[in-house]
Amino acid sequence: MIQALRGMKDIVSPDNEKFVHVLKTAGEIAERYGYEYIETPLLEETQLFKRSVGESSDIVGKEMYQFIDKGGHDVCLRPEGTAGVVRMFIQNKLDKKGGIHRMYYHGPMFRYERPQKGRLREFHQFGCESFGEGSVYEDFTIILMIKDIFDALGIGYRIKINSLGCPECMPGYREHLIAHLNDIRDGLCEDCQRRIETNPIRVLDCKVDSCQALLKEAPVITEKLCETCDADFSTLVRLLDAHALPYELDPKLVRGLDYYTRTAFEFVSDEIGAQSAIAGGGRYNRLVEFLGGRPTPAVGFALGIERILDLVEMPEERREGIYLGVMVPEALDTIVDLAHRKRRDTKVFAEYNKKSLKAHLKAADRLGAEYCAVIGEDELAAGEIWVKNLETKEEKRVAIREFD
Ligand code: HAM
User: Fold this and answer.
1) Which residue, judged by its Cα, is nearest atom 22 of ligand 1?
2) 383 with 353: CB under 8 angstroms?
3) Which ranges of 315-385 does DSSP label H, i.e. alpha helix?
4) Are strands 263-268 and 158-163 parallel, antiparallel or unpaired?
5) What interhelical angle do 136-153 and 15-32 show, nearest 10?
């Protein structure tokens, strides 16, 4: 039998309801924060990700679903959403328009990683990107929005934050870090030794215990920030304190994508095992320019939907709509008219088979209707309908003309 590919999952019951609930909740909150929904293609030129996520990153170096299409173009399935949104932003000349543009999206992302719990090869993200606002208050607002989303979904989290500096302070720090890494080079794993040349910052994030032991004394960027980056980072920390958000400073948080400047953050859950990052993001003030657009500050995040599904608390189901049934077939015409009238403002479940009152009540209950309304012989003769509120259990007979 043909099976789904390794690391790729169908989203079926009971996860499908949670999946839709996450998208709806996150989308509504993002709209309240002024974001508008956009879509970008799943397939992009490979070069886009090489230039934005970075050639030395694991995502681009090892994990891309890359191939040559029938026209000979080097393309790949998107491993993340930000690069495509920035490409779209520039292609649609939004960078030239100026002003602030806030957008949200969701959809599948593809990374050829080794599958394990919480790590898939096809997974879904919900993401937001804000262009044109350079203030650190926007970084804070994005963190607050993620808090609102997780609170609404009933999910607990811790926040890790760091600053990755800017072109003014990062190069100096980098030199400093490289000097230190060269001193401890022999004790580092092979990957780290290679990264000293290709991407020294990523060494800080190595998962090998012996490397982490050696990195204890490594210089941290937050001590080498320039005045502006330092002031912004202090403001962010002050705002997080003032709003009592559960954050910790993590100077080794470097993220797996190369485009970040200044703020970087991750939301982690302690309830889902090793793959604990449930959302990640930060500022990327250089990326628009780097991909050929007008210099535009930007900040954003994405959350991994599959990683949070087991944590989502579904809201209590509320009864909704009216069930309409008959106990005598002569009442069917009345029910059809009534159903049509009622559908203008509520959900209607019309049943066209005559049944006993007990059977109608059972069916209405199973469908989750708020009201069960039935016409029997007596009601038909009197021009009335029998109505029961299945929530309050209240019963009454009302004139069909006045049944609103
Ligand atoms: P990211 O940290 O690579 O950031 O991914 C964001 C989230 O996607 C992660 O926190 C995790 O929940 C989920 N995720 C990542 N990889 C997998 C996987 N293999 N299986 C399941 N879930 C996964 C980004 O992608 C950036 N584009 C975020 C961003 C937007 N930064 C600025 N704007």
Assistant:
1) 304
2) no
3) 332-342, 357-367, 377-382
4) antiparallel
5) 150
Long-range contacts at 88-97 (CB < 8 A, ≥ 24 apart): 88/38, 88/40, 89/129, 89/131, 89/288, 89/293, 89/296, 90/288, 90/291, 90/292, 90/293, 94/131, 95/131, 95/288, 95/293, 95/294, 95/296, 96/294
Ligand 1 closest atom vs CA 308: 12
List Cα–Cα distances, 197 to 114, 178, 194, 261, in angstroms. 25, 8, 6, 20
pLDDT at position 232: 98
Query: What is the rounded distance in angstroms from the CA atom of residue 126 to the CA atom of residue 142?
Result: 13
Strand order in the sheet with 66-68: 43-45, 74-77, 66-68
Q: Around Cβ 99, how many Cβ atoms within 10 Å?
A: 8
pLDDT higher than 90, residue 404: no
CA dist., res. 191 & res. 207, Å (int):
11
142 and 303 in contact (C-beta within 8 Å)?
A: no
Question: Residue 250 carries which side chain, given as an amino acid letter?
Answer: D
Q: Decide whether any atom of ligand 1 lies within 6 Å of the 125 Cβ.
A: yes
Which residues lie across from 372 on neighbouring strands? 323, 388
Q: How far apart are CA 74 and CA 70, in angstroms?
A: 10
Which residue has the CA at smallest separation from atom 25 of ligand 1? 80
Q: How far is the CA of 80 from the centre of ligand 1 (A)?
A: 7
Ligand 1 pocket, 133 CB below 6 A? no
The model carries a pTM of 0.87
Contact (Cβ atoms closer than 8 angstroms) between residue 9 and residue 122: yes
H or E element at residue 158: strand 158-163
319-376 confidence digits (pLDDT tens): 999 999 999 999 999 999 999 999 999 999 999 999 999 999 999 999 999 999 999 9
**Cα–ligand 1 centroid distance for 279 (angstroms):** 6
Tens digits of residue pLDDT in 5-62: 999 999 999 899 999 999 999 999 999 999 999 999 999 999 999 999 999 889 999 9
Residue 282 to residue 300: CA distance in whole angstroms = 6
pLDDT in tens, 113-151: 999 999 999 999 999 999 999 999 999 999 999 999 999
